[in-house]
Amino acid sequence: MMPSGSGIWLGSGGIITSKWVPDGPRAKPIAIALATLLFATINVQAAPATKSSTYLPQASPKWLPSFPKQKNVITSWPPSNPKAALPSGPLSTASFSLEGYPTMNEVVTNAAKDPNIIPIMKAIDWTKVPSAPVTSDAYGDEYPASDPYCWWTQTLCTTPKIHYIPPDISICPKAGTWGLTYDDGPMYYWPVTAENSKWAEPNLYDYLLKHNDQKANLFYIGSKIIGAPAAAQRGFNDGHTICAHTWSHPSMTTLTNAEVVAEFYYSLRMIKQVLGITPKCWRPPYGDVDDRIRAIAWQMGMRTIIWDRDTNDWNINGDQVAPGPGAITYATANKTVDNWIKSREEGKDNKNGHIVLEHELSNSTITLAEFWLPTIQKEYQTMPATACNNIAQPYWEKQFIYPIQGTVAVDTNGEPTGVKAPQI
Ligand SMILES: [Zn+2]
């Protein structure tokens, strides 16, 4: 069975109670689900296309406000003062003011009349945004088999039908590479108790640091950053590459254009306020993206990053604190990862590397992330998904230059940048 599209977030004792199951595909009709599974093996892409001249030009977002620099946050990579950049120990629980932001974990109401959103709506070239219908779960049955809008939820499509938007980044091009990604952070619990806090950040970040200073992509939710800004700053200072994961974690194709813009805007704004950067990468919750959403994201300065392997850690039926609503056991999730490793060891996985979906979401997912990491590091060249795709500068702020796998750094549109980035 395919997982449900809604549920109650594990461990949500307080203000972050929310109706989402983190990532994984949305519910869909069984026939289409089966077709999707068949597609899964043949839909993997080669390296991203590199003819950026055919892509719609992008510009650094002008509609984001300026913010004062935060104390103890790095301003470049590598950092000018590495020791100061790597604080450890308990994190501050200080929170940012919600002033200027919408309700946490909720799609922005009246987005079309929001004075922050109106200028962006005017700046976007809507002739370049396909008029794909706003979807709902019921719409799935009616969606044409020809997949006119490259709707990942239905077909796992990652190459837009429109030529001026690049394909989603969905794999690591080089075989034997593991693109490490953690979604839905920063991870924290409310209320803060000893038991809850045990698995909250900086638990995973400390673990990564102790294990060969492993770097990852962290796909942060805007609403979560507000609740745990110090955790976000710690992840960023550690050298992880931050990408946006929307404001409230909705299925993006179910939203109106103005709501989509608001989800992007408020997540980017929160990231800029707390970290001082503007990511050029985002990941759709549940993978729910089509060409309408891609075109809006691209014009707001971001390329879509998806995955080709899902650990299903988000769907575990319980955690260290309480039973949860998930559908699979720890053993099942472990088996999935074991099978990938076996396939690689047996020489059956030589076509390309993979971008793997994991989460910093609950004590279950943190437990699994830490349990798997040493084995993954042993079997694969492990790095952020942006690094295996040679994206050295993942933000509009160019002074952040991260190590990459290859020798030629490229932009998020796949074009060589001329920047000399260190090799992993
Ligand atoms: Zn997510």
Automatic annotation (TrEMBL):
Xref: SUPFAM superfamilies: Glycoside hydrolase/deacetylase
One of the GO BP terms on file: carbohydrate metabolic process
One Gene Ontology cellular component: membrane
Molecular function per GO: chitin deacetylase activity
Pfam families noted in UniProt: Polysacc_deac_1
Domain NodB homology: 176-383
UniProt protein name: Peptidoglycan-N-acetylglucosamine deacetylase
Organism: Entomortierella parvispora
Lineage: Eukaryota, Fungi, Fungi incertae sedis, Mucoromycota, Mortierellomycotina
